[in-house]
Structure formats: structure tokens, C-alpha cells
């Protein structure tokens, strides 16, 4: 333990730091977080180790400052309506962290519908921008409640493209395809295996490997020694608690 | 200032002002209809409500879907929907869209958000398709078996999706200001794709918060806020609060309280009948009066 505040870090705060790490070294690109915890994570990265990140207000403005979640920014540094946002995606200057209703071991993601597409049991959002995201800019995923309902053997509708589907398609599908990581309330996962299947990268402190296996609907690649997700520094905890999320919205998305 | 004063001559040019009823009278069952805005943002809701008062049906609706899609689906007017999503934004899932899909009530052409934009762009440019990377390897290709790929004729030889043009018979959009000739101005942060919808359509109808004349249109603002050109517009309708309950900033924000009531009613057939009776059984003035009464009750 490197600092005084770490003993008190909650699961939600480990998740924030794990999400922030997705944008480490990203450079001057747009961070597009979907969900509260990734939004806090992107702002933490911008305030600490990735100061060149671009952030939006969730609509068409690029923020010149880093307001608390839910608060309006005071400084606007750019304009990013949907048409320009889509150009940023296609040009690759963006790393998005999307949600997932279903996710399989190859990183295929579904947000469209559950069941047979022709007449779904549950209609969800639709594919939205998942196809364009996954083929053009790095796409990570955030799952606030890790369960077998989300981590499934097969997704019902491939919205975001996984490594197996990209490999089977034309080389143009693989050219810019990359899924850097998946963060859940239990741990961090990646696809750094020879077969490009999902691997446990780190367990959040307090989580047992058996819990992750129990909540995952397919066999995960697990290294012999499983690292722990890193501790937040005292300064990071201060930024999360006092500057970025003083209302504690993170604890609603990931209850202690 | 009028036309005489600014030297262009009195009565020059077509006056395209009409009523919402006039617009709907020009629509026919079976048409492909584009609807501007995005999700629950700046939707031409007054025109959609007028459409609900007509017997126009069997539509192919092309929309970044919000409650426009929900209301038309609930009324059984959509034969086929072309979209990438349907959402109320602050409420992630559009309840009527969801219900219509789950009972198999409409045919769906599900495209990615970027494919949709390039389909409209192809139509606006009178091209048969636009080549893009998005869609490859996803199930968008599986559920749209008619989609084809093209191979780049250049050295790279890349295989790309040929997104077909989304040509529209008619488009409906809502903007903050417009003049009588059909020039439309938006004052919010995002134009969405309203200009493209108009350019991709054989006939386009613009509703606006406020009809203004001559120099009042730009009103000293930036010229790039003049989003829609009259060259593509066939009718202009003044419809104050015509995007309600979606947002039309800076004129008004989304009516979140009303939207919650809409979504709640949509979840139950009996509640939906009551909602329809209360809000959608009269004309536009009756709608706006019922909304005002609703807010008085809520306050």
C-alpha cells in the first residue's frame, strides 16, 4: 500500500481506476465513456496520467475543463455534433468504453436484442454505433454487474465485433479492430491469448477467482498468478471523491 | 424588414407556409418517410401528431428513432422501420418500439448509426451507395441479407460495405427558426442530420418554433446555423412547442416529467388508452392545452 487513503477504497473506486487505466497512454484522442463509472474514470485519467484526452459533455460539446459528473462545464474547447463524432470514430482518434447486454469469450458484444432477432424476446437498444466503433477505433467494455446473463457462450446479435468474427471476415474488418479491455465489477479482462479469447487480467481486491468463474458463462483464460487491480493513490481517491464525483454516483452503479 | 426594403422585390419567390394538415395531406400511405432529430431530441412531433390524426399508414419510416417511432408504431402506421436504435435518451428503451418488435408488429432494417448517415448521404448525392467499413463482420450483415460489399478498385483492394442510398419520398424535420421560403435555422448545439434528411427526400417539410422574415432569420448570428436550404424544402409550418416532448434547445429542454408519463402509460394498454384519449384525441392546440393542464396537476 502506497498511500493513506487506499484502505478505504470501495469496489466502485477500484472500478473507476480500472476504467481510467484503459485510457493510459491514449494520447490526444476522444475518450467516450458510456456509464457513470467509465465517465468518472475518463475524467480521472484526464486529470492525472492522460492530460491530453478529449472529453465531451455527453452531447455536442468538447469540454475544456473537467466538471463533476452531472455538472455543466464552464469551458468549451470544441464542437462535436454527431456527424463530426462519426468522423472521429472512422478516423480512429477515439477510444470508446461501451456497455454490453451480452459479451462472449471472443469479445462479440450485443446491445440490440435478446432472443431471435426476427421477433426478439426482449428488444434492447438496437446496434447503435457498435459496428462502426469496433471496426474503427479501440473499443473497451464496461459491465457493472458481472453475471452469466452478460458473459455468455454466444451473443444473440453481434453488434460489436469480436476477434473471431473479425478474423473470419475480410482483412478490412481487422485493419483497425481492437478490444483493449473489459472492466466489470469483479475484475479486468483482455484478449491477450494466442486464440484471442477472454483472459482474466486482474481481480479487484476482495474478489475471489471462484466468484468470477461462477459468474461467467464460458471458460476464461486464467494465468497461474492472477494480479490484483491496482490500488488508487490517495490523490486519485481525493479527485474521485471531492472533484469528479462528490455526490457518490459511482456507488449507485456499483454498490459496496 | 420586408422584401421590398432589402431590394429583392416584393412577392419574389415562393411562399411555402402551410399548416401541418396541409403537409400531411401531401403524404400517402406506403411512402418512405424520413424523420429528423435524434432520439428524443428536436423531433418534428407536431407533424407526427398530425400524421396520427390522418389515415396515412403502411409507412417505411427512416429515423434515428425516438418517440416519433414510438407513437407511429403504437398507432400501427409503420410497416417497415429503418433505424440504428430507438430511445428516449433519459429513458434508454423506447417502450412502444420495444413492444412492437416483441409482438412482431413491424419489419426492421437495422443499420449501424454510421451506415445510416452514409445511406442518407448517398441519397442526397444521388449515388447508389457509399462504401464504408462499418457493418463488416457484424450481424447487421446477417439480418440485412440484401447488403452487398464492394472491393476498392485501387491498390489497397479493401472490401467495404456498399451502404445503399436511403432515398426518401418525404422528410419531416423541426428547427428553431425558419422563413416563409423554407430556409431553416437551428440554435442548439447539434444539427443532427436534418439537412441530409431534406436533401435525401423528394419533398421536405420543415416545422419551426417561430416563423421569421428576412434579416430576422439570421438575426446577427453565425451563418452556419442556417442548416436547411429552401432549395430542398416544399413546405414550412409554424409550430410553437412543435418538438414537445423532445428537446428543442435553446427554446426548451426535453419535458422529462411528461416523457416519464408517456413511458409509464406505454407500458400498459389501459393506461395507454387513457393517455391517447387525454392527449392525442384533439388537435395540436388541444394537445398543448392538455400538456399545460398536466403540468398544473403535477406542480
UniProtKB/TrEMBL annotation, chain A:
SMART domains: CoA_trans. Keywords: Transferase. The keyword Transmembrane does not apply. The keyword Transferase applies. Belongs to the 3-oxoacid CoA-transferase subunit B family. PANTHER family: ACETATE COA-TRANSFERASE YDIF, CHOLESTEROL RING-CLEAVING HYDROLASE IPDB SUBUNIT. This is CoA-transferase. It comes from Streptomyces cacaoi.
Automatic annotation (TrEMBL), chain B:
It comes from the Bacteria. Keywords: Transferase. The keyword Glycoprotein does not apply. GO terms for molecular function: CoA-transferase activity. The keyword RNA-binding does not apply. Pfam families: CoA_trans. Signal peptide: none annotated. This is CoA-transferase.
Amino acid at each position: 500500500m502506497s498511500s493513506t487513503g487506499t484502505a478505504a477504497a470501495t469496489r466502485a473506486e477500484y472500478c473507476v481506476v480500472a476504467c481510467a487505466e484503459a485510457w493510459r497512454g491514449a494520447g490526444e484522442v476522444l475518450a467516450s465513456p458510456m456509464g457513470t463509472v467509465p465517465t468518472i474514470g475518463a475524467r480521472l485519467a484526464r486529470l492525472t496520467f492522460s492530460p491530453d484526452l478529449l472529453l465531451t459533455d455527453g452531447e455536442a460539446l468538447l469540454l475544456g475543463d473537467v466538471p463533476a459528473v452531472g455538472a455543466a462545464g464552464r469551458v468549451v474547447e470544441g464542437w462535436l455534433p454527431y456527424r463530426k463524432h462519426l468522423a472521429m470514430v472512422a478516423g480512429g482518434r477515439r477510444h470508446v468504453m461501451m456497455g454490453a447486454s451480452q459479451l462472449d469469450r471472443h469479445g462479440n458484444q450485443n446491445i440490440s436484442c435478446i432472443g431471435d432477432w426476427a421477433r426478439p424476446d426482449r428488444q434492447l437498444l438496437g446496434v447503435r454505433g457498435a459496428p462502426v466503433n469496433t471496426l474503427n477505433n479501440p473499443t473497451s467494455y464496461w459491465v457493472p454487474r458481472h453475471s452469466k446473463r452478460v458473459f455468455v457462450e454466444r451473443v444473440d446479435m453481434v453488434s460489436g465485433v469480436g476477434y473471431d468474427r473479425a478474423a473470419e471476415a475480410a482483412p478490412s474488418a481487422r485493419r483497425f479492430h481492437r478490444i483493449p479491455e473489459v472492466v466489470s465489477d469483479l475484475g479486468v479482462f483482455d484478449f491477450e491469448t494466442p486464440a484471442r479469447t477472454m483472459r482474466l487480467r486482474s481481480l479487484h481486491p476482495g474478489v475471489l477467482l471462484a466468484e468470477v468463474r461462477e459468474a461467467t458463462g464460458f471458460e476464461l483464460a486464467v494465468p497461474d498468478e492472477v494480479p490484483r487491480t491496482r490500488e488508487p493513490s490517495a490523490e486519485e481517491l481525493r479527485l474521485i471523491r471531492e472533484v469528479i464525483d462528490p455526490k457518490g454516483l459511482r456507488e449507485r452503479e456499483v454498490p459496496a | 424588414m420586408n422584401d421590398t426594403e432589402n431590394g429583392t422585390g416584393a412577392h419574389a419567390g415562393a411562399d411555402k407556409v402551410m399548416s401541418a394538415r396541409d403537409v400531411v395531406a401531401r403524404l400517402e400511405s406506403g411512402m418512405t418517410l424520413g424523420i429528423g432529430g435524434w432520439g428524443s431530441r428536436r423531433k418534428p412531433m407536431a407533424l407526427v401528431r398530425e400524421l396520427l390524426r390522418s389515415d396515412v399508414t403502411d409507412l417505411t419510416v427512416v429515423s434515428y428513432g425516438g418517440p416519433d417511432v414510438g407513437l407511429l408504431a403504437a398507432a400501427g402506421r409503420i410497416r417497415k422501420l429503418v433505424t440504428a436504435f430507438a430511445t428516449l435518451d433519459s429513458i434508454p428503451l423506447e417502450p412502444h418500439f420495444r413492444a412492437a418488435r416483441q409482438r412482431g408488429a413491424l419489419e426492421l432494417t437495422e443499420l449501424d448509426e454510421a451506415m445510416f448517415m452514409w445511406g442518407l448521404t448517398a441519397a442526397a448525392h444521388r449515388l447508389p451507395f457509399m462504401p464504408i467499413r462499418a457493418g463488416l463482420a457484424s450481424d447487421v450483415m446477417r439480418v440485412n441479407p440484401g447488403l452487398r460489399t464492394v472491393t476498392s478498385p485501387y491498390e489497397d483492394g479493401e472490401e467495404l460495405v456498399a451502404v445503399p442510398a436511403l432515398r426518401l419520398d418525404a422528410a419531416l424535420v423541426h428547427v428553431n427558426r425558419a422563413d416563409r421560403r423554407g430556409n431553416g435555422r437551428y440554435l442548439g448545439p447539434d444539427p443532427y442530420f436534418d439537412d441530409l434528411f431534406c436533401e435525401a427526400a423528394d419533398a421536405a417539410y420543415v416545422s419551426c418554433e417561430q416563423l421569421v422574415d428576412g434579416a430576422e432569420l439570421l438575426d446577427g448570428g453565425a451563418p452556419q446555423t442556417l442548416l436547411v436550404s429552401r432549395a430542398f424544402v416544399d413546405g414550412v409550418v409554424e409550430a410553437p412547442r412543435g418538438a414537445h416532448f423532445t428537446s428543442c434547445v435553446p427554446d426548451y429542454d426535453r419535458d422529462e416529467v411528461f416523457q416519464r408519463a408517456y413511458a409509464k402509460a406505454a407500458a400498459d394498454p389501459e393506461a395507454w388508452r387513457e393517455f391517447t384519449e387525454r392527449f392525442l384525441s384533439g388537435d395540436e392546440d388541444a394537445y398543448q392545452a392538455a400538456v399545460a393542464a398536466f403540468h398544473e396537476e403535477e406542480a
